[in-house]
């Protein structure tokens, strides 16, 4: 049977071989058939959906492992027999049940993951709900594949009756064998079955002495197998019981077969869906093996394949040389030249297979970012087309094939020609090849062609629709690298390869002389271009290696920087823990001093308590300064000018990023005392600057980062200082007692004065209002007895008048 042009092209590209590789990955017979009959889509939407299905399945495989595809059987023949009212065998019914279970399992699996794989969820959504039929079949058979006693009560009863009769017959046979009166007649002490009847072995000469029916004899004739007369009726009963059992088994299988026949259409439709899921799973596994990805597709004839590899080679091994293939953007035809066995034909097949794979929804063995055109026709003329039966030479066969392709190729077609117009006179062949290529391009087709013709190498110079590409070849050791270099024609290196393979030097030199001066000059020019290209390629590889090394070093630097930040954070946390411990201990001692002062309210005892608190405060401040000393490096001032601040003004401690009050004149000493919150510390004057000028200029990125680090550290330290202030209670110099009962107000006032003393307040305001005057009178009587109070007076009109009492405390 004559093959069509499409079939010949696909075989030349090894498309059937790739489909067979895909079929090997399927788990079911229907799935394998779907792989072998892989349909090709024509429109962009269908193709994109097919690629997305493969992507969803691949992502699912990589995330969760295998998809539950077990249990899918080829039921087409079974369903056909059921439709013809045939009684199905148990194995067939079990296969139906397992397939239905597989469908329900897959539907549930994808429905639970519909957010991550919506297309596969939509694909399995129409699967029928035949769980009742699946359950009925499952109940009817046991794990060994036989009908279960649960299939029907009658079956259970029939089996019980048969087992009982068997046992009765065996018991009777045992009694015969053990009867002494039969000892001389029996050939051996056992019983067996002949013609489905229980019999005993009797000596031939004694058969007349054992009443019964002879069913068989031994080969020697010395033994006859007799059914004892006393067992004939029971054997008959057993036979009848087994017939009844067979009828019940037939009835059950018939009923189940009818149920299957009633749902045959639904089951067949489900089988098609399950086969499609198996196909998608095979596509995803194929992509995993060859490390593929989904390309962008277009109907504009644009091809850009990045790091693409021949799919069959990518499936077989990992060390396949990747290449970049471009077509359709800046040129319509790519002429590939280079040495024999350098990879030209593989490049053609790679392009053709990628064009077919995209239409089939298969990922390409290419890098992300690749783009593939949708070709309506893919035609290839590759390999030896010689036909002895048709009396065609290689040249004639190729020429007829190209002519047929010319009749079909047009806009949207991809034409792949290997060694175009070869096997004839080189000059005629080159001219014929150029004419054919121009015809294809004129008709709007995209073309990849390999050749050794120098005339075709010059074609891109005259016609911008064409471009050159050459297969890389190391001239030093005459070894192909299989890399395709776009824009540069390749040399054939035929003489060099022949010389290396053993051609004599004399013959090699003679061949070089015969090449002709003009051709030799062209070869020299091409050789020079090849050398320069190799140098540039090596430099590019070096730059790429240096870039990767720089990225590695950058990553290591980032890791070290993160480690240093973590170490710094740990140091700060440890310092804060030490400060917290100091504060906690101080709080305990403060509470002890206050308790003692409250018990003994004499003025001298109070002053002693005050001095103790002052000493404790100095100890805490000294401890905090000791902890934070040298924790952060001081910020070196960029200017040697003196600090333009005077004592009492607000400044910023640069290394801490905190506001403080300058306590000493910076013009008299290089180190001055600053109060930050409640902590006094001594710092270098060059570590200070006016608070109003603390912002960092936006034009410098380094000071901004430093300020950010200092600010972070400063915030941590501030939290520590605030911890001191939280444990030493503070308040504003006003206490509002309005709205409280007298006893509540006195209690609140006492607590407030406790805090005021601790916070070194010299004057406080107690707001009690006018009211009936009871609260004011009681409060002032209390103030007269309080050891904290030096004197007090009613407020001035501007202070609130007699509704406020101003209290001066002992300092």
UniProtKB/TrEMBL annotation:
EC number: 3.1.-.-, 3.6.4.-
Cited SUPFAM superfamilies: DNA repair protein MutS, domain III (SSF48334), P-loop containing nucleoside triphosphate hydrolases (SSF52540), SMR domain-like (SSF160443)
Gene3D superfamilies (alphabetical): 1.10.1420.10, 3.30.1370.110, P-loop containing nucleotide triphosphate hydrolases
Every Smr domain range: 735-810
Residue segments, region Disordered: 689-713
Any Gene Ontology biological process: mismatch repair
GO molecular function: ATP binding; ATP hydrolysis activity; ATP-dependent DNA damage sensor activity; endonuclease activity; mismatched DNA binding; ribosomal large subunit binding; rRNA binding
Residues bound to ATP: 338-345
Top-level taxonomic group: Bacteria
InterPro entries according to UniProt: DNA_mismatch_repair_MutS_C, DNA_mismatch_repair_MutS_core, DNA_mismatch_repair_MutS_sf, MSSS, MutS, MutS2, P-loop_NTPase, Smr_dom
SMART domains for the chain: MUTSac, MUTSd, SMR
Assigned keywords, A-Z: ATP-binding, Coiled coil, DNA-binding, Endonuclease, Hydrolase, Nuclease, Nucleotide-binding, RNA-binding, rRNA-binding
Stated role: Acts as a ribosome collision sensor, splitting the ribosome into its 2 subunits. Detects stalled/collided 70S ribosomes which it binds and splits by an ATP-hydrolysis driven conformational change. Acts upstream of the ribosome quality control system (RQC), a ribosome-associated complex that mediates the extraction of incompletely synthesized nascent chains from stalled ribosomes and their subsequent degradation. Probably generates substrates for RQC.
Subunit structure: Homodimer. Binds to stalled ribosomes, contacting rRNA.
PANTHER family the record matches: OS10G0509000 PROTEIN (PTHR48466:SF2), OS10G0509000 PROTEIN-RELATED (PTHR48466)
HAMAP family according to UniProt: MutS2 (MF_00092)
Similarity remark: Belongs to the DNA mismatch repair MutS family. MutS2 subfamily.
Protein name: Endonuclease MutS2
Organism (species): Tectimicrobiota bacterium
